[in-house]
């Protein structure tokens, strides 16, 4: 079989850009293909920006794909960087030619992305751990998932996911890093090295949220989760304004003091006219290591109390989606960047989180809010 450029191009079409998640041939990243008489192949590849953090991955994947072709005796990769004009063309190809105030894709007619805003009344109830594990469970089932770490002051999602890479910027479009097949963006990825605090006020918080939603290239997501800061402050209000279709997930513990505060966080939906997807009770009990008896370390009934109170306030049923038991491995997984639903999927906490994720993944068959493009028959 004579080795041709068509053979090499077909192989390169199997190479997926690790940030954009589309074939490099679709993204005009293949600069050149040269085939020597002895079967040696030289491939020129455009990187989106100089110093692209994914250049080693791209080099490896291109080399492996071309090396598999029958008749190839060697592969050499030459990297180049896109010009400003090429980057602008790529940006337009990915998300169209938008105006100066970029639109949030999840608000567009026909968007199939389901958005969940994960809220809590107070800190320390495990809201971020729940967010990360729900996202990981959904992604492991084959869904396309993203997380916005909207807890600007208390950002912790990158560590919990093990997302060490910094975002890449293509013109004014931000490519989010991926970890465990989850696209993630956080203000922590833009800070200088070190644990420096973010000292922002309301308008800056709102602007940051808009950039995370509009400037980031999310692609076609099935689910987007936002990890909100505790309480009902600026970010919660901005989410209601920027993403009016977002559904609220309320996380609480069984303790009545925490439940009362969580109820207030969920009640914001009555003023913003958002839907509450349900309540998740975290740290519901501790399994006794000797007899498996449930020990109510933080009391009992808080999750159901919040669900019942929100049902009365909103006039529509708010379900208790699940009760996640205390598990030391859940905390350890967060510190190590390894979600429990992936490392110990059959553990009591892992199984409960996967059950909750599965329930949330089932889209309602309701046609409410869906534009059917029908017109009345005037015959």
TrEMBL record:
Domain MIP18 family-like residue range list: 6-76
Stored PANTHER family: IRON-SULFUR PROTEIN NUBPL
Entry binding sites for ATP: 121-128
Organism: Nonomuraea zeae
Protein name as catalogued: Iron-sulfur cluster carrier protein
UniProt GO BP: iron-sulfur cluster assembly
MF annotations from Gene Ontology: 4 iron, 4 sulfur cluster binding; ATP binding; ATP hydrolysis activity; ATP-dependent FeS chaperone activity; metal ion binding
Protein family membership: In the C-terminal section; belongs to the Mrp/NBP35 ATP-binding proteins family. In the N-terminal section; belongs to the MIP18 family.
Lineage: Bacteria, Bacillati, Actinomycetota, Actinomycetes, Streptosporangiales
SUPFAM superfamilies: Fe-S cluster assembly (FSCA) domain-like, P-loop containing nucleoside triphosphate hydrolases
Reported function: Binds and transfers iron-sulfur (Fe-S) clusters to target apoproteins. Can hydrolyze ATP.
Keywords noted in UniProt: ATP-binding, Hydrolase, Iron, Iron-sulfur, Metal-binding, Nucleotide-binding
Superkingdom of origin organism: Bacteria
Subunit details: Homodimer.
